[in-house]
From TrEMBL:
CDD domains linked: TatD_DNAse
NCBIfam families assigned to the protein according to its UniProt record, in alphabetical order: YchF/TatD family DNA exonuclease
Keywords per UniProt: Exonuclease, Hydrolase, Metal-binding, Nuclease
Keyword 4Fe-4S on entry: no
GO MF term (any one): exonuclease activity
InterPro entries, per database record: DNase_TatD-rel_CS (IPR018228), Metal_Hydrolase (IPR032466), TatD-like (IPR001130), TatD/YcfH-like (IPR015991)
Keyword hit for Metal-binding: yes
Official protein name in the record: YchF/TatD family DNA exonuclease
Length: 262
């Protein structure tokens, strides 16, 4: 059984066929999913999904692209939601130097505040890192993120960066790019990540794996990520699925066995 640890099933791209997408994921062997609420619009829709489906969990936080919009009451809101039984992490949070929507200093401040909240509540964090490897590691260290650990979502850095994150107690998660022919670095890093720290995801509707690259991604496609990861690790897909699902269950403290029904 597969665990898609990072998806956005509440995205508008699924408005016409969301239930069918979720059904296809179950048919593909996906037993659990974590939906990500990352701003004022997506946190409520993420919570609605988590409350509607036993096998969908929620992570809530403030995305770096939206950092400039976060207010004190939003942080209080995130804190209150962390008491919900279906909320398993604070995220996705982090730094994004690709999109010029929030100044770096604002991103840094918002990230630090959310790591502080995670430490206060004892919640793992889900890190978004785009073109900001050095600063991410620096802030994680300075804010003692190792006290809670978490997940480096859709990892795109070097093995050196991965090692620093692993040393702080983080899991490393890979998605569609490991199926791309030209994605040399993610594949090289995945091979070296210890099996007990490996996770898989889709980040749907984004980062669609081969052979559907360029089209809308969906959670059922995590099976293709699992197949690529298994080949790189030299194990069976079944072994890869079992290990990564167990890793996710432990990382997010999920103990129950939800029934696969709405």
């Amino acid at each position: 059984m597969l665990f898609d640890t990072h998806t956005h099933l509440d995205a508008h791209q699924f408005d016409e066929d969301r239930e069918a997408v979720i059904a296809r994921a179950l048919e593909a062997g996906v037993s659990r999913m974590i939906n990500i609420g990352f701003n004022r619009e997506t946190i409520p829709t993420t919570m609605k999904l988590a409350e509607s489906y036993d096998f969908i969990y929620a992570a809530v936080g403030w995305h770096p692209v939206d950092a400039i919009t976060m207010k004190d009451e939003d942080l209080d809101w995130i804190a209150s939601l962390c008491a919900h039984e279906k909320v398993v992490a604070i995220g996705e949070i982090g730094l994004d130097y690709h999109w010029d929507t929030s100044p770096k200093e604002v991103q840094h401040r918002v990230l630090r505040r959310q790591i502080g909240l995670a430490r206060e509540l004892g919640m793992p964090i889900v890190i978004h890192n785009r073109d900001a490897h050095e600063d991410i590691v620096k802030i994680l260290r300075e804010e003692k993120a190792s006290e809670v650990g978490g997940v480096m979502h859709s990892f795109s850095g070097s093995w050196e960066t991965a090692k620093l994150c692993l040393n702080m107690g983080f899991h490393i998660s890979f998605g569609g790019p490991i199926t791309f022919k030209n994605a040399k670095q993610p594949k090289e890093v995945l091979v070296q990540v210890p099996m007990d720290r490996l996770l898989i995801e889709t980040d749907s509707p984004y980062l669609t794996p081969h052979p559907f690259r360029g089209k809308r991604n969906e959670s059922g496609y995590v099976k293709m990520v699992a197949e690529a990861a298994a080949e790189l690790k030299g194990i069976t897909v079944e072994e890869l699925a079992e290990i990564t699902t167990r890793n996710a269950m432990e990382r997010f403290s999920i103990k129950q066995n939800p029934e696969q029904k709405r």
